[in-house]
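Sample entry (87 residues):
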Amino acid sequence: MKRKSEATSADMRPEYDFSKGVRGKYYRRYIESTNVVVLAPDVHDKFKNSDAVNEALRTLIRAAGAGRGLTKRPARTRAKATRAGGR
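Predicted structure, serialized as tokens:
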């Protein structure tokens, strides 16, 4: 059973035809290309726009040491690698 359109003639013009429309056709593409972050109200009050937020985050990344990963040293040291049969 097809759903009847809930739109009245006052809501939709006759030239709008969605009879061949596909629901969610671009949903996956939209989700993959969006990168939305919701800020807490107190954080939102401190920044004028997204450029200010991005600048602050880049400054924080540089201060933390952008060249370093999650650990300060490699998980396997050279001595362990040679004992394990590595290089």
